[in-house]
Amino acid sequence: MNTLKDLQLLIEKGVTDLSFPLRPIELYEPITYILALGGKRLRPALLLMACDMFGGDARAAVPPALAIEVFHNFTLVHDDIMDNAPLRRGKATVHEKWNPNVAILSGDVMLVEAYKLIMQVDDRILRSVLEIFNNTAVGVCEGQQYDMNFEQQQRVEIADYLEMIRLKTAVLLGGALKIGALIGGASNQDADLLCQFGEQLGIAFQLQDDILDVYGDPDKFGKQVGGDIISNKKTFLLIKALELAADEQAAELQRWLDATSFDPAEKVAAVTAIYDRLEVRKHAERAMHTYTKQAFEALAQVSLTDDRKQYLRDFADGLMVREK
Questions:
Q1: Which run of H or of E encompasses 87?
Q2: Which of 13, 61, 130, 289 has its CB 3.0 to 4.6 Å from that of 51, i.e. a possible disulfide?
């Protein structure tokens, strides 16, 4: 079996080898640009990993894996427009480097290119793979819409938040694993179990991200600690704090949420102190561990030998052990 690094290198080479027409340059250059910004390529690598686990040819699965990567980057291009984000992986976003109209149209072409790549799977499983890909794509869009809705809502329920991150983040992990398993020759039952593994792990990963945004080491986490607090982003921690806070704590938290002029460091410190008093970190960590456990339970039911499943166990362990 290939190592994760081997599979990531396969994807990286595949991305580099993707070719697009030269004209009109404004349509195709942004696609090459966003794909060249890099990233860990974990989603397409998961597809190859699942294929490899079941004895399939990982190299033959590269086109559908690239479809997952192109689709993921398409969502980033459009999400950045909606978020008015100036940077992506430390570089100017497509709509900033060109303009929003170019970004929208290039993103549209990326979606079409993703379908052209996914269509390269064996005809025997094409209909099943397309159904998974379609359901995954719709789920990601639904998750983004829920996330935008939450920005306008005063209160969000924990259950609704968990469903949002399942759709926006986790279904793409599950879909990639399910497609890879089918390409590798897995049964529908095993493919479904790998999909469950990916979704549960994806939810756990996002919960960990919420925790690290407040409590992580910025030098190791790779993001601005407290960014979610500064922007009033509705994370698990904020939603839980709003649920638990009463009287003076509730009033203080609401004052910070309503403030339009503030010192960012002061706000982060004050809201973090409220989180500490309410022990919301413990609630978030408990939920994270629950979803991680459910992921491993799904993986345990896959009808492969333990040595083959260790592949994904090691991946999950690496994903969930991040620097604090």
A1: strand 87-88
A2: 61
Cβ(150)–Cβ(168) under 8 Å?
no
Bridge partners of 91, per DSSP, are 88
Report the amino acid identity of residue 22: L
Round to the nearest angstrom and report the end-to-end CA distance of the chain.
31
Q: Is residue 41 classed exposed, middle or buried when 0-12, 13-18 and 19+ CB atoms within 10 A define those classes?
A: buried
Residue closest to 53 by CA, chosen among 147, 213, 179, 149: 179
Q: Quick one: which of 160, 141, 289 has its CA closest to 234? A: 160
Q: Which residue has the tokens 């690239």?
A: 66
Phi, psi of 133 (to 5 degrees): -60, -45
Q: Which residues pair with 92 in a beta bridge?
A: 87
CA gap 64, 117 in Å, rounded: 6
Unique residue bearing structure tokens 């430390």:
90
pTM above the 0.90 mark?
yes
Distance of CA 123 to the CA centre of its chain: 29
- As a whole number of angstroms, the distance between CA 300 and CA 225 comes to 35
Which amino acid belongs to residue 98?
W
DSSP states along 12-65: HHHHHH----SSSHHHHHHHHHHHHT----HHHHHHHHHHHHTT--GGGGHHHH
Q: Along the chain (324 residues), what's the average pLDDT of each consecutive run of 10 residues?
A: 87 95 96 92 95 94 98 97 90 96 98 98 97 98 96 94 97 98 98 98 96 85 78 96 96 97 96 98 98 97 95 89 59
Report the number of secondary-structure helices (H) and strands (E) in the chain. 17, 2
Closest of 143, 184, 139 to residue 164, by C-alpha: 143
Cα Rg, the chain, nearest whole Å: 21
Question: What SS3 state is found at 241?
Answer: helix
> In this structure, what are the phi and psi dihedrals at residue 322, rounded to the nearest 5 degrees?
-115, 155
Q: Give the pair of three-digit tokens for residue 297.
A: 């339970």
